[in-house]
Amino acid sequence: MTRITRLLVANRGEIARRIFRTCREMGIDTVAVYAEPDANAPFVREAGQAVALGGSTSVETYLDIAKLLAAARRTGADAVHPGYGFLSEDAGFARAVIDAGLTWVGPHPEAIAAMGDKLAAKRIMAEAGVPMLIGVALDPDMTEAELLDHAAAVAYPVLVKASGGGGGRGMRIVREAGGLKAAVASARREAKSAFGNDAVFLERYLEGSRHIEVQVFGDKHGDVAHLFERECSIQRRHQKIIEEAPSSAVSPELRERMGAAAVAAAQRIGYDNAGTVEFLLDSAGAFFFLEMNTRLQVEHPVTESITGLDLVREQIRVAKGHPLSFSQDKLRIDGHSIEVRLYAENPAKEFFPVAGHVLAFERPSEPAVRWDSGVETGSDVSVFFDPMLAKVIAHARTRDEAALKLALALERLRIPGLVTNRDFLVNVLRGDAFLAGDTTTDFIDRIATARTKEAAPEDIRFAAVAAALAGQYERRGAAPVLQTVGSGWRNNPSAYQKVSFDGPGGVIDIEYRAASGEAFEVRAGGEPGHCRVVRCDAGVLGIELDRVRRSVSVLHDGDNWHTHDGRIELTLTERPRFPGPRTAGGDGGYEAPMPGKVVSVHVAPGDAVKDGQLLLVLEAMKMEHHITCSRAGTVASVPVAAGQQVQGGAILVVITTEGS
What we know:
With 660 residues, this protein is α+β, with helices and mostly antiparallel strands. The protein folds into five domains: 6-105, 3-Layer(aba) Sandwich (Rossmann fold); 134-204, Dna Ligase, domain 1 (2-Layer Sandwich), CATH 3.30.1490.20; 211-447, 2-Layer Sandwich (D-amino Acid Aminotransferase, Chain A, domain 1), CATH 3.30.470.20; 457-574, Glycoprotein, Type 4 Pilin (2-Layer Sandwich), CATH 3.30.700.30; 589-656, CATH 2.40.50.100. An eight-stranded antiparallel sheet has the order 14-13-10-11-12-15-21-19. A hairpin with a 2-residue loop joins strand 11 and strand 12 (239-245). Helix 4 packs antiparallel against helix 5 (109-116) and helix 12 (399-412) runs antiparallel to helix 13 (422-429). The chain is globular. 46% of the residues are buried.
């Protein structure tokens, strides 16, 4: 057997931390590699050693094979785990690791190569008897007429897909010929940025299907087994955000057929580590091969939950030459598991990714769920990489219990000041459609789940009173004199102190005055009430407002007061008591939502534009973002050009509208 004593993880974030955790349990030393924006990330600190790769982008760091191998040599690592994404499905990287005398924790390079060319993979799987969807490769030199002919042969709607990677990168749905050329060009650019490979192909897009994948595992002794299925149908931008195991749509008989097809696929290429065979399942129960991912999947924890296996441990054991520690006939499904991906993104703005600082990341102690996170309090979400903050996984006896348990844990998470998809995930998990198992790949568009949580007037009232009193306690604690004087004391007991906030619904005025002890008379928006502070420590106020008690955590950051009562998180911005002079803002300016690179500009000064028209394409966080017109008008100026790097908030296009 091969010995592994020190393992380098050629990845970042939560998956690096996940692999390190298993390595520590197995007594294996660890090495991290990192890009400059990740220098202070938790995964860097948790490794036994960490090597700076020198650079900020994926191409300069996590996609640079020479730098990764040099880091392994420098630290004395004897094995490499690629995680997922980046070079995890790059046969050349696997071969380079092996040629360097290191142990590759993944399938052999020939298997990666066989499945890495998605169209070649389809041919191999067809030979193995796995059902197929029509697909065709797109040569970069083909003419537009040839491109249109290929799409017509596949039949609209078609899906443009990256050949060199997955995770939703380099994918575009095209429903009519007019949008094909632009979609292919955009997919190529995004695939190149994410995977270093701009090859794409066309595939028939199956409307209203389910995305079902089967976890397979092989060893170096010829044994292959499947660990049942996962459903990953709920997606945005073709990227999964909710996964579960098992699928509510898969019967025992269908599970057996899909599992057998997945095992046949793995056996066909002599597969020898963790992999996933992905299928589309239509409403009639027919399934079709999509692709095989020759790596560990993001969503592997749900399979771990229902089988009791540690898949990273199995990967390492297989890489060392051990046989599988389980057999197909011994595997059983235990309960139900659901995972959500918590992202720094704005669901209300088409899930647009955001960057920023994590003021706090405080997980609730109950309910007990699994948190695989890449961030902690004080972390920064960089514009250079994927904005996933954490994966949260719940396991329970039933699907309903798992969903509701997960929703409650998410709701109780404290993560102030950073826009996330948390409220949207909670709304989905508690929604009738999800609980009924009505989950298809068009779920988000079809079901139209609320993307944010609306605060009730009572929620806002509690939050504003808590913020006002927290500020009063903060000032009292910082006072250089008279700290023994009761909080809120005034020589004129009839006078109220007043603070105003900008919050949900507009301006909120809070007036308060001390009554007795820690009791206060309050007026919220002019409405009188009685408040008693029953706890004030560690940033948490226990307040009883008109006989209703809540614990509200309060975090003060500049003019902002971030509150969380275990159900809803709000940000209130304190208004200055003496407002300064106001400055006029521009009208009709479209700003960069984050730092990025201008890929292309589609309008010029003097152009008439209409609502929904594409103005500009910005590349940031490994994705292309289309800046579109929100109101018809005339382009006044375009202060940027293609290829230009811009900062967040930079004006990209200025449009004058009628009456502006």
